[in-house]
Amino acid sequence: QVQLVESGGGLVQAGGSLRLSCAASGGTFKSYAMGWFRQAPGKEREFVAAILWSGGLTYYPDSVKGRFIISRDNAKNTVYLQMNRLKPEDTAVYYCAVRRGSYPTAVALVDWWGKGTLVTVSS
After folding, report:
1. Where would you tag: which of 17, 49, 67, 69 has the fewest CB atoms within 10 A of its CB?
2. Hey, what's the torsion of the CAs at 3, 45, 93, 77, to 10 degrees?
3. What is the pLDDT of residues 14-66, one digit of tens each?
4. Sign of the CA dihedral 42, 48, 52, 53?
């Protein structure tokens, strides 16, 4: 059973940066893709970034492209989300996600979820 534990959330001022981590265990990650989603109060959970564990190819929606960077450390089984030039609208609970195979770009495609970490961006 895959387990995901997020960390690194907190309060940051607009324009600042934050790095989230997701420690993964219990799976054969070479054949998986990892991703990040976020959910703001009263809104649906949305896709933020994804990376193929093997090869490291990444994928982002336009809303964060150029500001967010996803990366992974194979030795540590950890995925990171570097968030730069943060905006108040980036405030949300950020969830780590795993999909067997290709990018987890939609909620319905995710096989496993972490419990989330809260990011609050003040104006």
Report:
1. 17
2. 30
3. 999 999 999 999 988 888 999 999 999 999 999 999 999 888 899 999 999 99
4. negative
pLDDT in tens, 83-110: 999 999 999 999 999 999 899 999 999 9
Residue entry with tokens 């969830």: 95
Per DSSP bridges, beta strands 117-122 and 10-13 are: parallel
CA 15, 48, 35: angle at the middle one, nearest 5? 125
Segment 9-16 shows an average pLDDT of 98
Tokens of 87: 């905006």
The two tokens of residue 73 are 């450390």
pLDDT at 108: 96
Name the DSSP letter for residue 46.
Answer: E
> What separation in angstroms does the CA of 76 have from each of 63, 107, 109?
29, 25, 25
The amino acid at 39: Q
Distances (CA, A) of 99 to 10, 46, 56, 103: 26, 15, 14, 7
